[in-house]
Model the fold of this input.
Amino acid sequence: MKNHIIFFSGGKSSFTVAHLIKKRFPNDNILLYFTDTLYEDEDLYRFIYEASDKLELPMLYHSVGLTPPQLMAKERFLYNSRVGNCSKKLKMEPAAKFFKKGIKPNIEKWYNEKFLKAPIVPLSEGFSINTSVYFGIGWDEMHREGAIKKNWEPFDVQMPLIEEVIDNEEILELYNIRRPRLYDMGFAHNNCKGRCVKAGQGHYKNLLMKDEKTFQEVKEHEIVLSEYIRYTKQPQIKNGKCKDYLFEDVYKFLSEGIKSDKIKNIIENADYLASTRRLFGTDSKGKPINKAYSFIKIMTLNELEKKPIQCDIWDIGGCGCFVDYGNENELFNY
Ligand code: SF4
Done:
C-alpha cells in the first residue's frame, strides 16, 4: 500500500488534489496535512474540517504555536513582499521536520484519524518507501517545481494540477462544499485571512474595501512592529547593553490585542513616528533609523488607507505558502 501526503492549505486547489488522489488510489493510505499559522480566517477551519469529513480522509493538524506577527517580533524583522520567514518557519520547517525526522511541533491534533489506513512513520524510519507528497500548484506556478522537488528529496513529489487543468469549483460542487469565503471577497488565496505579509498593494486595497476591521488590525500590527524594530536597531538595545523595554508590550498586543499605554502612544502617533525624523538616532552601522518599515513596496498600510486610489491595484503579490522556497539551494536537511 502506498502513502500519499497532501499538503492541505485550506485552498481550493489542495482540495482538488485530495479529490484526485482519493479517486485514483481509493485503497491507499492518504493523509491531509495542515499546518496552522494561527492567523487564518475563521472560515478556513470550517472548510478544512468539512473537507476531511466529505472526502473521508484523515487530517493531521500541526502548529508551531506562533503567528507571523509574533515571529516577526521575536526576529525583530518586518517581513514584506520581498522577504519573509513565516511560510518557511511556520509551515515548511515543521512539515519537513515531521516527515523526515518524526519531530513534532508544539501542537498536534488528529481529525478523522479513523480513516488512516497505516501509521505515519518518518523518513528516518523508512517512510520514504512508497510515499508521494502532493502540492496543489498549477501551471501558473510551475516555475516553483524544481525547488520544491529538490527540497522534498527523497520523497516522490507530485503536482497533478500542472499536468491537468481542472475547474476547482466543479470539484467543490461534487461534494456540496462551500468554497472558503476569502475567494468570494476577491482574494486569490485562502491564506492568513487576507493579510499575507507578502501581498501587494492591490491585495491590501481589496482587504480595506472588503474587511476594514481586519485591515485596521493588520495596519496597527505594521505600525507597532515597524516602530519596535526601529527601536531595537539602536546599538545599545541590539548588543544587549540596554534592556528591551518594549518587547513585552509589543508581544502582548500582537498576541492578545492588549494596548498598553506605550502601544497606544505608538499607534496614535503613527504619522509623526513614520516621518523622516531621526527619532531613534543611528543603527550599529551609523545609518539613520528614520524610515518606517512596510509590508508592501513603497508605502505603509497607513499611507495606503489615506490614498487608496493612488495604489497599484495590479500589484497583488501573495504567499506561496508550503511551496515558497527561495531557490533550489534552500534545502531542509532534517
Ligand atoms: S500566507 Fe503570507 S503571512 Fe501567512 S504564513 Fe504564508 S507568507 Fe506568511
